[in-house]
Amino acid sequence: MRTRLAIVLCVASVAASGRALAHHSFAAEFDETKPVKLTGVVTKVEWANPHIWFFMDVKGADGAVANWGFEMGSPNALLRAGWKRDSMKTGDVVLIEGSRARDNSNNGNAHKVVLANTGQQLFSGRPGGQ
Question: Which residues contact 1 (CB under 8 A, 6 or more apart)?
Fold first, then answer.
């Protein structure tokens, strides 16, 4: 019985370590020295592991609209931070504070999300941050 338990634990730890090694770090994709503060309309929310992503249309000073994507923590981390699956919905106007992608694409890591209609602040579940 102990041998079987030891085998199961070894297999589980190998499987878990493969997932951890494949996971990216914040610093690999995002640049904390490139802060972004944007306001826009949510176009899509992807509530899935390993990270929640949401997309929003942001109108620039020239009137052109650009779609931005923002990564946040895992669903579990966001639930612990006070989020619910319907905290942010398509059509909501949100204000975002975060860090831009290292490749300067219209992607970022959201640190804080403020719902414009209620003023409620939600934090991203980012480790070591808000």
Answer: none
Assess whether pLDDT exceeds 90 at residue 16: no
In the chain the domains, ranked by start, together with CATH numbers, are 26-123 (2.40.50.1010)
Give the integer Cα–Cα distance in Å for 95 and 76: 22
- Is 89 in contact with 63 (CB distance < 8 Å)? no
The pLDDT tens digits of the residues spanning 95-111 come to: 999 999 999 999 999 99
The pLDDT tens digits for 67-91 are 999 999 899 989 988 889 999 999 9
In angstroms, the CA 85 to CA 87 distance is 6
Inter-residue long-range contacts of 54-60, CB under 8 Å, 24+ positions, other chains counted: 54/88, 54/110, 56/94, 56/96
